[in-house]
Structure formats: C-alpha cells, structure tokens
Amino acid sequence: MSETSAPLPERWQQLAAYGGSPSSPHPIPVAQVLLDDEDIAAVVEVLRSGHLRAGRVCEAFEEAFAAQVGARYAISVSSGTAALHVAYAAVLAPGDEVLVPAFTFIATASMVSAVGARPVFCDVRPDTFTLDVEDARRRITPRTRAIAAVHLFGNPADVAAIQALAQEYGLTIIWDAAQAHGARYQGQDVGALDDLVCYSFYPTKNMTTGEGGMITTNDPELYTRCRRLRDHGQVDRYEHVCLGYNYRLTDVMAALGLRQLTRLPTWIARRRAHAQYLIRALQTLPGLHIQQEQPGGEHSYNLLTVALSPEHFTQDRDTFVALLRAENIGVGVHYPRPLHHQPLYRETYGSWQLPVAESLSRRVFSLPVHPGLSQEDLAAIVRGVRKVVEALHV
C-alpha cells in the first residue's frame, strides 16, 4: 500500500490477502482424488493382462454398480456427458423439447441439442437450487417429451413432484446424477429411479474412474437401446441396426471404478459429516444462505454450496471468493452463468428471464467437504469464512 493510499479498515487487516496469517497453513483443495495401493494394483493387473478395452471388468463394474444403487441394469460409458448423450438419444427425436433447469452444467442441455432436440430452460428453487417443478409445468408444450432433472451438487431433486408431472403429461425422466453418487430419496438410492439415471466419474466427483460414466435403468428396452447406442448401434459383431457411438468404457477404468465403489459408502458418510460440521458452524453467520437439503432426500454433498445475500456485504461474490482463496481455502464457483445466458443458447433462442437461476449464478460459491479433509482442515475452513464475512459484512 502506498503512502498516499487510504488506510485499510481495521477488520480487513487480519485477512491473508492484506498481510494477515492465512486461516490454513496449507492450501485446502475444493476436491481431492483418493487413491490407495489397491486401486493402483487393480489397474496394473488389467494393464498386465493386455485386455484393455471394454470386457469382463466393465461387465463386473456394471453389475456391482447396479446392485449397489438398486437398479436392474447399468451401462458403463466413457464420460458423464456420453451418458447424457446416450440417454437422450434413446428416448428423443429431432424437434422434441426437454425441460432443463437453467442452473447446472452445460452438458445437461448441450446433449439435448446434440440429438436434435430443444432444451427448454426452467427456473430453480431458491432453497434447494434444484428444478422448480411449477415453473417447468408452465413451459410444457405439445412438443415436450422429457424432463432432465438434476440432483445438483448431490442434493436430490423434488423426485415425487417430478414423477407426478411426468406421469400427468406422459414424459420420460432423465435424472442427471453426475454429482449425486450415494444420494437417496425417501430411503431409496437415486440410481434406482425410473427412467434413466446418468452418472459421471470425473475426478472431482464422489468416486472416479479418471473419466467415465454410467447409466442405470429398470427398463429392459431402454437398457438394450443404450447398450447399442454406446457401441456403434451393434446387435452383433459388424451388424449395426441404428446410428451409434464409440462411448465404451475401458477395463482399465472399470478396474479403478470397482475399487472406488467399495469405498463409496464410507466416503459419502464422511462427506455428510463434514457438511454437517460446516453447516452448524456457518449457518448463524449473517448473509450466508446454504443450499437446503431436499425434504425426504439425503444429500451426498459432492459440494457444500452457499449463496451470499448481497445486501449484507460491501463487496460481491467474486471478491469474497478471492479473499477466501487467499486464506488457503479451496473454493469453487458452480455455476457463474446460467445456461440460458450461455452464448450458445442466447444466440440460438434469444434471451428470457429466469430470476432465481440468474441470482444464484451471481451469488454462489462452493466449499470443500471431500473425505480427505482433516478436522484441522474443517476448522480452518470455518475460520476463513468467518474472517471474510466479518471483513465484508455491512
């Protein structure tokens, strides 16, 4: 600070960004990949076998995943985006419309577009951040064929209301569970829901295969369609009955997935415990609105997401996040732009207003809750957030 600069407010002087000691002595990542020697050994065993493509290990992973979530079938694919693409291709035709929440990752909508259908963006709820079912109802037209329901950050969507809407209008439900491994609704794992459930195994997710994804279903016809679509439309070797893709997983990735799956329940329990610790510590701080768990749901906490109330602070979300990162606290911003404001869709469909999604995109940030956190890490996260809240509070 130069001699002519105004002195910093006293409450800012404790911030690490302005010379204070950081809340954590080391960086705390917002996500962390946990691998042990048995994970590595399982992958090495497949590499040494020479059988690397989709084979028996992928089949074993599919069977184990389906059994763990309580679904009848599981289809492994090369990514969470591929899972959505295959699921949409299995049920949609060009010109169909799909109800899509505007506050989520782009793939939920872009894969609708990839099959020639049209995403119809809907607002989300200000408490759970998931699909506002009544807003979705208002956007149904004769061309509406499906609902893309996202269990955002691991928080189950309003399953009962979505199912009722789908039944009323004869719509298929594609559940986007990319962040929701281990989430439950009314005691049932979300992977057991009808019609199609799509998972991602990207490294930031609750379990990983590096990349990779999974589709679960209880419908034998949808299972058959999805299997064909992920493998060039084949029903037999070199017999192709429909347009398909090369979206197969590999046995190398599946070997890691099988190992990760065995530890998933323990990891989810830790995520929930870490989230509850942070919620108890932070919920009394002014100006913070923590994503509320869906009634009847069990959040799997891929992330703990918080929305700032701007009237309580002298600075915006981006300044808040920058100051918190300086405290060595890993922070994510998911998502800084709602889907209907993405250039892809603004240019294609024009602009319309979805006020909750737009507001959340300006106010949210996500804190670490991954199972690799220590109690010291959790305490440091709380210290960091408190320091920044106290510095920026009106």
Description:
The longest helix is centred in the last third of the chain and has 32 residues, at 251-282. The mean pLDDT is 96. The protein has a 7-stranded mixed beta sheet, with helices on both faces. Strands 7-6-13 form a 3-stranded antiparallel beta sheet, with no helix packed on it. α1 runs antiparallel to α8, α2 packs parallel to α8 (251-282) and α3 packs across α4. The protein has 12 helices and 15 strands. It has 2 domains: 10-31 and 264-392, Aspartate Aminotransferase, domain 1 (Alpha-Beta Complex), CATH 3.90.1150.10; 37-259, Aspartate Aminotransferase, domain 2, CATH 3.40.640.10. The protein has helices spanning 37-49, 56-69, 80-91, 107-114, 133-138, 159-169, 220-230, 251-282, 317-326, 343-349, 355-363, 375-392, and strands at residues 73-77, 97-101, 118-122, 144-150, 172-176, 184-185, 188-189, 196-200, 213-217, 234-236, 239-240, 288-290, 297-298, 304-308, 364-367. With 394 residues, the chain is an alpha/beta fold.
